[in-house]
Design goal:
- The structure is a single chain.
- With 198 residues, the chain is of the alpha/beta class.
- The chain folds into three domains: 2-79; 89-163, Dna Ligase, domain 1 (2-Layer Sandwich), CATH 3.30.1490; 169-198, no CATH class.
- The chain is built from five helices and nine strands; from the N terminus they run E-H-E-H-E-H-E-H-E-E-H-E-E-E.
- It has a four-stranded parallel beta sheet.
- It starts with a strand and ends with a strand.
Length: 198
């Protein structure tokens, strides 16, 4: 059995995938909520996928790490990813850039982004709602965008400044591909396209 752990507020995404493309997996696939783990005294045997780790509070993430440490060597229990070593958005973008796999870089809004190449845009490290700003072309515009984001309730430590990488086709359309990586397999999930830019 594959146990897919996710915050309750985000379970519809994997549910939609199972309804559309993953129906053959349903019998061997169980979606569970992190919040429900608090009341469980034991975990069922099977393979666990720890999803949406970027959505967990620091306290809950620490608690999940303790559970992982206690069960990682238990017979019949396997984790496909690690609660602390799985790269979040900033770590992943930095790693991909360092390896030369991404043509763009990211910096934390509270750090030193002086060597970033303009234009850039602002986005949240944790949210999945795209850019928080239009394309920015100067340090002054970056400061204004950060100020607006803070007024809107975003936390400085969660804001990223990301170099814009032009990927539009000849007609001005952008494509966004989504996929799951399970072991050594890449499983397609979605393709979105439009003229919305970053």
């Amino acid at each position: 059995m594959i146990h897919f752990l996710v915050p309750a507020a985000h379970s519809s995404l994997i549910g939609d995938y199972l309804d559309a493309f993953g129906a053959p997996l349903r019998e061997n696939f169980r979606v569970a909520h992190y919040e429900d783990l608090v009341n469980q005294r034991s975990l069922s045997r099977g393979t666990y996928v720890l999803a949406a780790l970027d959505q967990l509070s620091p306290g809950f993430a620490g608690w999940l790490f303790e559970i992982h440490q206690q069960l990682k060597d238990a017979e019949g229990v396997r984790f496909l990813n690690h609660p602390k070593h799985t790269l979040q958005r900033f770590g992943l973008l930095s790693e991909l850039s360092q390896r030369g796999l991404n043509e763009f870089r990211a910096a934390r809004a509270g750090g030193d982004g002086s060597d970033l190449r303009f234009p850039v845009f602002l986005r949240s490290e944790r949210l999945h709602e795209g850019a928080l700003s239009p394309l920015l072309h100067s340090e002054g515009e970056i400061k204004q965008a950060i100020g607006r984001a803070l007024v809107q309730g975003h936390k400085l430590r969660e804001l990223l400044i990301i170099e814009f990488c032009e990927t539009a086709d000849e007609q001005g359309y952008y494509s966004k591909y989504g996929a799951f990586v399970v072991g050594n397999r890449v499983i397609p999930r979605s393709l979105n396209y439009g003229r919305g830019g970053c």
